[in-house]
Amino acid sequence: MLKQRRISELLTNVDEKTAENVLPDSRRKGFLPHFFNKIENQNYIGEYPAPQDYDMNSMNVEDRHDFLKWYKEKKSKGAISDFAKEIEACCRVDVTILRKACLKFRELILTQTNYEVDAFDSVTIASMCMTIFRTCFLQEEHRVHLVTNTDLALRTRWVNGHGEVWYFDRWLSQKDLLNTHNHVVECKKHQGNEIVRVKKSLGWHTYLSDK
């Protein structure tokens, strides 16, 4: 019984709203009799199953209307159901929907985080949200040491995904460092792990220290 239940759940319909957002109408999936999906019916070829096998009672008004119209057309034409082929076609469309939805979700997260957070580097939604918070919103402070003839140490922080350096009594952005003080800031940042490198035209450079 448990094995039978898992087979039915495996082919549960992907949310049609998701399908609407990622697939054109020509690629949309049709109707599959999920309750008919039993071991003894895997290779069924014959008349289309009863409407109840399509779980029509759980459909909204619009979907039920479309289903009944489709079902009546099949019955009136004496169409034959090849259940194995229908399952394969349904699974292929489901995989396409999920793949395209995942790609859209990944692109959304990348664009909203200045391409600093990849959603699929996290295992769960919760860990992804924490990564976004840690990377784009959590203010961090580190020491940036100038490797020159001075022991000057500069603090750095990240605000809304942008790095700033405490330079002579004020926080300066990377752009301000370049335009005002001729410093070039090179940053490599991945999920909260930062490498900050500041270069001056005379050969000054820095490295990040968390001490």
TrEMBL record:
A biological process from GO: DNA replication
Pfam family, one: DNA_pol_B_2
Catalytic activity: DNA(n) + a 2'-deoxyribonucleoside 5'-triphosphate = DNA(n+1) + diphosphate
Residues annotated as transmembrane: none
GO molecular function: DNA binding; DNA-directed DNA polymerase activity; nucleotide binding
Record bears the keyword DNA-binding: yes
Keywords linked to the UniProt accession: DNA replication, DNA-binding, DNA-directed DNA polymerase, Nucleotidyltransferase, Transferase
EC assignment: 2.7.7.7
Major enzyme class: transferase
Annotated DNA-directed DNA polymerase family B mitochondria/virus domain residues: 28-149
Family classification: Belongs to the DNA polymerase type-B family.
Protein name, entry field: DNA-directed DNA polymerase
